[in-house]
Design brief:
Blueprint: H1 3-18, H2 22-37, H3 40-45, E1 61-67, E2 74-80, E3 88-89, E4 96-102, E5 105-112, E6 124-132, E7 137-140, E8 145-150, E9 155-161, E10 170-173, E11 180-183, E12 187-190
Parallel strand pairs: 1-12
Antiparallel strand pairs: 1-2, 2-9, 3-10, 4-7, 4-9, 5-6, 5-8, 10-11
Helix pairs in contact: 1-2
The protein binds fe (ii) ion.
Fe (ii) ion is lined by residues 89, 91, 98, 140, 146.
Length: 193
């Protein structure tokens, strides 16, 4: 594993051993993820990673670099081609920090203007739009709704999650109608870092 990633995992394990709540853990981990996003070696090696998403047919994958045997946290990558969008989605109960390693994109955050009780239909309201660049970290708490749209260049994200995704149902939302589709989320592809 790359030395910067090894350092990151060691630091995260130390934080998990000392800090109990996800909110506090993630706040302590954030500067370490910022440091990882600055690593030149990681940026270079990321140029060999595969872009295989086909969002139009519902296929999205994450490279899975590491899953902690004791604490269950994971380190992923999400790779998006130019002019590619994720579905509008949440990550279910999982806590996430999504960091941009390469490329620029637009992140839009939503909230539900309804009472949140329906799992078939949501009234989506835009909370904010941000054009983001390398080094940006989006802190995504459970059930927070968002979408990413790339522009003219590919985007490589490094994702830290408190649990692996892909083995439970997450919400995808149809942006226009607010219809909710339950899906299993991104396919996890074990990948050597
Ligand atoms: Fe996401």
């Amino acid at each position: 594993m790359l030395p910067a990633a090894e350092d990151f995992i060691r630091e995260v394990r130390d934080i998990y051993s000392r800090v109990d709540t996800p909110e506090e853990r993630f706040k302590e981990i954030q500067p370490h993820l910022e440091k990882l996003l600055q690593d030149e070696e990681l940026r270079e090696v990321s140029k060999t990673w595969p872009f295989r998403n086909e969002p139009e047919r519902g296929y999205i994958e994450n490279l899975l670099f590491y899953e902690d045997p004791d604490y269950g946290f994971v380190l992923n990558s999400l790779l998006k081609k130019p002019r590619e969008s994720t579905p509008v989605h949440d990550h279910g109960h999982v806590w996430t920090m999504y960091g941009v390693l390469r490329g620029k994109e637009r992140v839009i955050r939503y909230e539900r203007a309804d009472d949140g009780s329906s799992d078939e239909q949501a009234d989506l309201k835009v909370l904010g739009e941000h054009d983001v660049e390398p080094g940006y970290i989006d802190f995504v708490r459970p059930y927070e709704i968002h979408v990413e749209h790339t522009g003219d260049e590919p985007v490589v994200g490094i994702i830290f999650r408190d649990h692996r995704v892909g083995d439970f149902l997450q919400n995808f939302y149809e942006a226009d109608s607010g219809k909710i589709n339950k899906t299993k989320g991104p396919v996890q592809i074990p990948y050597e870092l």
